[in-house]
Design a protein that fits this description.
Blueprint lengths: L1 H33 L4 E6 L1 E25 L2 E7 L6 E2 L4 E5 L2 H36 L5 H33 L2 E3 L4 E3 L9 E3 L5 E19 H10 L11 E4 L8 E8 L9 E9 L10 E18 L4 E3 L2 E7 L5 E12 L3 E6 L6 E3 L13 E4 L2
Parallel strand pairs: 1-19
Antiparallel strand pairs: 1-18, 2-9, 2-13, 3-5, 3-8, 4-7, 5-6, 7-9, 9-12, 10-11, 10-13, 11-12, 13-17, 14-15, 15-16, 15-18, 16-17
Helix pairs in contact: 2-3
């Protein structure tokens, strides 16, 4: 019996030992995998020639605008448009009462007729005097008097003609027309109100030609000095197609061609005004809209670029996790410049071209750690 029991126990022990050995071997393999360096995506710092930009706030304005004004006194009778609509040059916009101005025209016409009649009379009188003088019937003094009367009559005619022209012009101002084509505002004076525009013109509305717009912005005199020092002035090609962005995404993308810089510094703000032209596509821009201007201020021919999302920051500033030749992660402080193409950041100090840096899993790596880098573009 003892021999038989021993024969039974030995195979069981052998099996248990085999299971134990197998289990130990699996734990050791698992431990080896845990100690393997983690795979981390990295990229190389690249160099490129980039245009440097500075974002400055600006405002859109109409290149052409005109006030619609009343130049006569009287009640505003009609408004012949709807605010916000497009009006054409010469279109009738308002009418004002015109009775007094029409009467003034009639009076001026009567005065002109009287003056012309007197001129005709003195013309005939002078002719008769000259014939009488030839026949020694009148004196030279009488002829001179007739010439003087005619000259005064001709002057009276010219005065009456000028008065009639003024009266007709004043009457024409009772009908207010559009001085230019464009989009018109609501009237600032309601129909039925009295307008006193004869002494000083009264603005009734404003027309904006939104087909041609301008981008206006200012920079400080010190920024201007840097800009001029790094470029050739507004004739430089980098000032063509300057990017514009708005607070909300619009249907169209916009750029401006800069053409004007104020010739003097505004002493109250120590700034210089810039202006550029732009085309209003689909009529979606309006006078007074705010805009951000990506002002180019120079070209960096050998800028070092990294992915902006790879940058970290702490109390000391910006940093990258770089990877050395032994695949060890290093905490590398850097100085940064402008954003380029929305996703790349210019590194101005702390990084060499071609140096590798971590692009993913920034929260999982630590300085001094050995990794298995996976190079990406």
């Amino acid at each position: 019996m003892k021999v038989k029991l021993l024969n039974t126990i030995l195979p069981l022990c052998t099996a248990a030992m085999c299971i134990a050995l197998t289990g130990c071997g699996g734990s050791k393999a698992k431990s080896d995998n845990a100690d393997a360096p983690q795979k981390v995506r990295v990229a190389e710092a690249v160099t490129d020639s980039v245009v440097l930009y500075k974002t400055v706030p600006g405002v859109i304005s109409s290149a052409n605008m005109a006030n619609v004004v009343a130049r006569t006194n009287g009640k505003l009778l009609t408004q012949n448009y709807t605010g916000g609509q497009y009006v054409k040059q010469g279109q009738v916009l308002f009418t004002l009462e015109s009775n007094s101005y029409r009467d003034a025209v009639h009076q001026a016409e009567a005065s002109l007729a009287t003056a012309q009649s007197q001129r005709d009379y003195y013309t005939q009188q002078l002719a008769a005097m000259r014939k009488a003088y030839e026949a020694d019937a009148v004196s030279r003094m009488q002829v001179a008097q007739a010439e003087s009367n005619l000259a005064q009559a001709e002057a009276s005619v010219k005065t009456a003609q000028a008065s009639l022209s003024t009266a007709r012009e004043n009457l024409s101002h009772c009908t207010v027309t559009a001085p230019m084509s464009g989009y018109i505002t609501e009237s600032v004076i309601d129909v039925g109100n009295y307008v006193a525009g004869e002494g000083s013109a009264v603005t009734l509305a404003t027309i904006y030609d939104n087909s041609s717009l301008q981008a206006n912005f200012s920079i400080s005199d010190s920024e201007y000095e840097k800009l001029i020092g790094r470029t050739g002035g507004l004739t430089d090609s980098i000032f063509r197609n300057v990017p514009l962005t708005f607070r909300e995404k619009l249907r169209n993308n916009y750029t401006t061609d800069l053409y004007y810089a104020s010739p003097s510094v505004d002493e109250s703000t120590a700034s210089i005004q810039f202006t550029g032209n732009l085309t209003n596509r689909d009529n979606e821009l309006r006078d007074g809209m705010y805009v951000s201007v990506s002002l180019p201020y120079g070209v960096e021919p050998h800028a070092i670029l990294v992915k902006d999302a790879s940058l970290g920051s702490d109390q000391l500033g910006y940093y990258l996790y770089t990877v050395d030749d032994d695949n060890i992660v290093r905490h590398t402080p850097v100085e940064v410049g402008d954003l380029f193409l929305d996703s790349l950041r210019i590194i101005t100090s702390g990084l060499r071209p071609g140096e590798r840096y971590v692009t993913k899993a920034l929260l999982k790596v630590r300085a001094g750690e050995t990794i298995d880098p996976i190079l990406t573009k």
